[in-house]
Amino acid sequence: MLNYIKFTFLRFLPKHGLSKLIYHLSRIKLKLFKNFIINIFIKIYNVDMDEAEYENIQDYESFNDFFTRNLKKNVRKWTLDSRFILSPVDGQISQIGDIDNNDLIQAKNYKYSLDGLLGAEKDLAYEFKNGSFVTLYLSPRDYHRIHMPITGRLIKSIYVPGNLYPVNKSSVENVKRLFSRNERLISIFETKLGLMAQIMIGAIFVGSMETVWAGEIKSTNKDKILMNEYLRESIKLNQGEEFGHFNMGSTVILLFQKDKVLWGRDIKNDTLINVGQILGNKENG
User: Fold this and answer.
1) Is the pLDDT confidence value at 285 over 60?
2) Catalytic: which of 62, 144, 147, 180?
3) Which of 65, 105, 117, 160 could form a cystine bridge with 60, CB 3.0-4.6 A?
């Protein structure tokens, strides 16, 4: 009953309006304001500033500047090797495994479809049928820049407008088809493993998402799906290179085609993972 009341309230909450408000507040550069907010955030979420490129909060222009902070060099161990699939983010494994025909696992007793996740792109969904997937949740305290798990050439991006439900564990376990209902940016790459999709899932208070090739993609209430093809442009990102970042936190989903990936035996649901850590390897070694 408590969950029912909570998520009924969330359903009618003006999530887009609140996210726009947070977008503007997080960019205020007034020192007293931004320092106060950053300090409170660090204490609440126990953020490890020893890992940050700039440890002193005075060095950040705004809360969003702090939230999207870079890490110091060499604080993460990277195994840059084309045989491996690396974690694109710091976070936690929400779900990992195989795609069952057209279905992915969201949580226990909850599934959602490739068609829905990929914005009703049936041809694209067919490419990932019976493939492999991993869902990675970024908590507020995590490093929020996203990197490339393997080297790839961008061939298509699809922005799908949608809702902005929270993506924490409670929401994932209670909101049906959450990832195919929320706003998202789908990026399709050609790689040595065939096609790979790296999907940024929006959420409440996520003011916007950014990629290194397109810049900022703001949340919108419009119903129009935006698609860009990069057949003539050569946008290649190497393994480990920055892909983009969240302005506030959320979730990343990776999709691979059938018989391409073997996930590591020690990589299971709820496993905490760092960017650059090995998630799996090519199925044929």
Assistant:
1) no
2) 147
3) 65
